[in-house]
Design a protein that fits this description.
Shape: globular
Strand order of the largest sheet: 4-3-8-7-5-6
Structural class: alpha/beta
Strand content: 5-15%
Largest sheet: 6 strands, parallel
């Protein structure tokens, strides 16, 4: 269904994980890998501000509702059984499925501060016996030169990865996935934001009661106030206004298009 002009999936976490694993087991496509984007309020508001970014989201094979407010909006629009698909949880569920069906999926972790991707790989391989991690990379926190992009592409492609997990933050990671689509040989690229930091213990999950109340953003803000205060204090009220305008028929957002 469309939320602020972006096609957001209404399936459960298990259904989304099953779909990602199925795509990762299919032959590579001529058009490059599908990309999957668990997206929160931040992503939808960025799409409202920037039509080019909204087009990137609309071209994704799957946009999952990463934030509780998206679920609330979806339910108000008639999807009563819609549930949250949190990026870090999606990563866990896909990894859980990666050694099943006698066809082990190969994973590449791209993002995070130096050493974080390697620690993530260690923790996940300890958790899931037989998990195949074929590469890790922490890119510099700046725009890349073309020769660096070529080197990164070569490293990922030579690894034979089926799934590339990207933790660069929104909107950088989605733009990276769209730009790299024609270069990569992987089957699926999944953008997972802070999943690298959650699974390595650098960030803590909010208590369940805060998650259910849609207040995980406040818990996250308390952990990283200097970096996140502007995003949350600007985007959250704006999302409420935009969502209300959509529900009341006062605004019509760009129509989503198929990938």
């Amino acid at each position: 269904m469309a939320l602020l002009g972006v096609p957001v999936a209404t399936g459960s976490l298990a259904e989304c994980a099953d779909q990602v694993a199925r795509w990762a087991r299919e032959p590579a496509r001529n058009g490059g890998p599908r990309y999957v984007c668990p997206t929160s309020v931040h992503g939808l508001v960025e799409g409202w501000r920037d039509p080019a970014f909204r087009a990137i989201l609309a071209a994704a094979a799957l946009i999952a509702p990463d934030g509780v407010p998206l679920v609330w909006l979806g339910r108000l629009k008639g999807q009563r059984h819609m549930t949250r698909v949190f990026g870090p949880d999606l990563m866990v569920e896909v990894c859980r499925r990666s050694t099943q069906q006698g066809n082990t999926l190969r994973h590449f972790f791209y993002g995070g501060a130096p050493g974080v991707a390697e620690e993530l790989a260690l923790r996940l391989t300890e958790r899931f016996a037989g998990l195949a991690v074929v590469g890790c990379m922490a890119p510099p926190f700046r725009d890349l030169e073309e020769d660096e992009v070529v080197a990164i592409t070569d490293t990922i492609n030579r690894s034979g990865a089926d799934i590339v997990w990207v933790g660069l933050g929104t909107p950088k990671q989605e733009r990276w996935a769209a730009a790299m689509r024609s270069r990569l040989h992987a089957k699926v690229v999944v953008t997972v934001g802070a999943a690298f930091d959650y699974h390595t213990g650098r960030l803590r999950r909010a208590p369940p009661v805060m998650q259910r109340a849609g207040l995980e953003w406040a818990y996250r803000l308390a952990q990283e106030p200097g970096r996140l205060w502007r995003r949350y204090l600007t985007n959250n009220p704006l999302f409420v206004v935009l969502a209300a305008a959509e529900l009341l028929g006062l605004a019509k957002f760009g129509e989503p298009r198929d990938a």
